[in-house]
Specification:
Helix content is about 40%, strand content about 15%. The chain has about 400 residues and is an alpha/beta fold. The chain has a six-stranded parallel sheet, with helices on both faces.
Length: about 400
């Protein structure tokens, strides 16, 4: 028996009608687990395909968008023009053989094309449907278009909360909120399948980028719900715990100290940075006194850390067993993570093998993760339509 036939979701067919990041990323995770994911695109393909590295200013000849391949790995492709009645009927017939349907189409458009969950469950009562939108199904903002920058980052409070005092808000990196929402959708879909298996009835799983952002900011949200006061932002110059803070080091680099319980580490920390005078200073004698004098301590530590480079600090801090990390560039993080199995080689249809991310989890004893990149547009159209029971003439009209 092949590894594919033994995969966790082997035999599960997924129809994905979505573009850009969040829902396609969920489809990619389902493909990693062995599902047969059919990606339905507009006839000329989604724009995300065409963002090749040169368009972003890189000296690289990769023919398509690497992030598109990350979020569409292991799928099959068909292009359908849903403004045509025969294309909508073909999609409905494809849906009859599917267990899961996922989309980021806004609710009003779903209803226009007969793809709302009520209509679909009437036609296929065991179908599990999932959607990611900016603000969720129902309510005044249900049909408001959104990206993770707007709904997950700005409107959740995260954009404001994650800046230091006196610093302007910064941009979210591409796809961060989307990939978190994708994991939420997959979690909901797997739970809905479990319920369907027990009851025979399909379910609708609703995920919003806004709720994803609130959940990511959960500690601050939980606190603010109780204290009912504005959030106190981080201020690295005045942080109450100087050992839970960032510091610049020589060479225009930074380190991050993460000693949330500083008393446990204070003595060996002072030894690691060769500052026994701080350990003996009555202003820093215990945690409460250090907190009261944190501004002065932070200034002392800034001067100390600035005297050595990251390469010089690393062996000293590691040997002391304290909790810290270098603030790495993305290219450095990739090399640092390579031995941990965080990346895998997959195959591009024309460009050959290339590296991308592995799934964000592992299952003991199971080989998970798609080995193929995203399919070429329309690559599987005839097979998919034939499997849905369309005749040769019907297929020709669509293909």
């Amino acid at each position: 028996m092949s590894a594919e036939s033994e995969a966790a979701l082997a035999g599960v067919r997924v129809i994905e009608l979505a573009h850009f990041v969040a829902v396609p990323a969920a489809g990619a995770l389902l493909a990693d687990l062995g599902a047969d994911v059919i990606k339905v695109e507009q006839p000329d393909g989604e724009i995300y395909r065409r963002g090749n590295p040169r368009l972003a200013g890189y000296e690289c000849d990769f023919p398509e968008s690497p992030p598109f391949h990350l979020d569409n790995r292991g799928k099959r492709s068909i292009g359908l023009d849903l403004t045509r009645p025969e294309a909508r009927e073909a999609l409905q017939r494809m849906m009859e053989g599917a267990e899961i349907f996922i989309t980021n189409m806004l609710p009003a458009r779903r209803e226009k094309f007969g793809l709302d969950h009520t209509s679909l469950l009437e036609r296929n009562p065991s179908l599990v449907m999932g959607a990611i939108t900016g603000y969720g199904y129902g309510g005044e903002a249900a049909d408001e278009p959104a990206f993770d920058y707007s709904a997950c980052w700005a409107r959740s409070g995260m954009m404001d909360a994650t800046r230091d005092e006196g610093v302007p808000p910064s941009m979210l990196r591409p796809g961060v909120g989307d990939h978190a929402a994708a994991v939420n959708l997959v979690t909901g879909l797997l739970a809905a399948m479990r319920l369907r298996d027990r009851t025979g009835r399909g379910r609708y799983v609703d995920v919003s980028l806004l709720q994803t952002g609130l959940n990511l900011l959960g500690v601050d949200i939980a606190n603010t719900l109780v204290v009912r006061e504005p959030l106190k932002r981080h201020d690295r110059k005045r942080n109450a715990n100087a050992l839970w803070n960032s510091y610049p080091v020589a060479g225009d680099r930074w380190i991050m100290l993460v000693m949330i319980d500083p008393n446990r580490y204070w003595d060996k920390f002072c030894g690691a940075i060769e500052r026994p005078d701080l350990r003996d200073d009555e202003r820093y004698a215990d945690g409460w006194v250090r907190s009261a004098n944190s501004e002065a301590l932070i200034a002392e530590l800034e001067g100390t850390f600035a005297a050595r480079s990251l390469e010089e600090w690393k062996p000293r801090l590691d040997a002391a067993g304290i909790i810290w990390a270098p603030v790495m560039r993305v290219d450095e993080a990739i090399e640092d993570s390579r031995a941990r199995g965080c990346f895998r080689e997959i195959q591009h249809p024309t460009a050959g093998p290339f590296e991308t991310l592995s799934p964000p989890f592992r299952i003991e004893g199971e080989e998970i993760g798609a080995r193929r990149g995203a399919p070429e547009l329309h690559a599987d159209a005839r097979d998919i339509l034939g499997e849905a029971g369309l005749s040769d003439d019907e297929i020709e009209k669509l293909v």
